[in-house]
């Protein structure tokens, strides 16, 4: 009797493991029979300054006006101090920024998603943004409240990218056969990617509301699964030297690591000069970043940027 019970338990465990593997493969190994899915991941780089200088001044001014970035920030009530810091700092530089909360919060204005499941919040936020703003913005940037973003650097990076093409970019991570953009570094979708994603949100077989039957998949992996069905693939964003511009850590942590690993090249070994995001910041660190990026100036030093991105109308940005 004991041996029969033991055999039964072993069978149950093996069966559960087998189901889990099938579930994972079902989500990750997608579309190998479709030629448009035979896409090799590649790295996207920012344009060279020399290329920008070749553009006439009138064309540069037109370019600066044509980039419209809508910022989505996913928040929960426990993030209220971070929420306040994000509102007071970098989101002023978005063409429009809206906060999407897991529940109604009286302290700050937000769009209530009525769920604390991060994947459902992300889905609903993308659908809301597409339905309401598809004709007003050509790029959509999603962030967490622990992040600091430099929108002008994002616009510069996107300068030669066509939003009518399916772009999905940020800091990429590989998990098995799935390559995805980490939400920790911020996620950028072009309007074409938003269209394709929106077309799949109502098809559970291709873009399910829940991850696997055995365990949940993180929201950024879920997004990659859905986009892969639509022929949209993750791209790693880098500067002209190959350094990441979407960062999943704070500046302080990068400097600390550089001091340990490259003590003679701390600055060079730290971060890109054209960094778009840093993550893992406290509210005070966000205000310090705002001071360093936008307010601190060396008297008498004139910057010769090839392009200027004008702030949105009515903005009180720095």
How does this structure look, described?
This protein is an alpha/beta fold. The relative contact order is 0.16. The strands form three sheets. It has an eight-stranded mixed beta sheet with strand order 1-11-7-10-5-2-3-4, sandwiched between helices. The chain is globular and about 55 Å long. Helix 4 runs parallel beside helix 10 and helix 5 crosses helix 8 (219-229). It has one domain (43-295): Spore Coat Polysaccharide Biosynthesis Protein SpsA, Chain A (Alpha-Beta Complex). The chain is built from ten helices and twelve strands. Keywords: Membrane, Signal-anchor, Transmembrane, Transmembrane helix. GO terms for molecular function: glycoprotein-N-acetylgalactosamine 3-beta-galactosyltransferase activity. Its main location: membrane.
Report the average pLDDT across residues.
81
Read across the widest sheet, the strand sequence of neighbours is 1-11-7-10-5-2-3-4
Characterize the largest beta sheet: strand count, sense, and whether it forms a barrel.
Answer: 8 strands, mixed
Task: Tally the helices.
Answer: 10
Low-confidence parts lasting 5 or more residues at pLDDT below 50? 1-41
GO molecular function: glycoprotein-N-acetylgalactosamine 3-beta-galactosyltransferase activity
GO cellular component, one term: membrane
InterPro entries: C1GALT1/C1GALT1_chp1
Membrane topology: Single-pass type II membrane protein
What secondary-structure arrangement, pairings included, does this model have?
Blueprint: H1 2-28, E1 43-45, H2 49-53, H3 57-66, E2 69-75, H4 80-88, E3 96-101, E4 111-112, H5 118-133, E5 139-143, E6 148-149, H6 151-157, E7 168-170, E8 172-175, E9 178-181, E10 187-190, H7 191-200, H8 219-229, E11 235-238, H9 251-261, E12 277-278, H10 283-295
Parallel strand pairs: 1-11, 2-3, 2-5, 3-4, 7-11
Antiparallel strand pairs: 5-10, 6-12, 7-10, 8-9
Helix pairs in contact: 4-10, 5-8
GO cellular component, one term: membrane
Protein name: C1GALT1-specific chaperone 1
GO molecular function, one term: glycoprotein-N-acetylgalactosamine 3-beta-galactosyltransferase activity
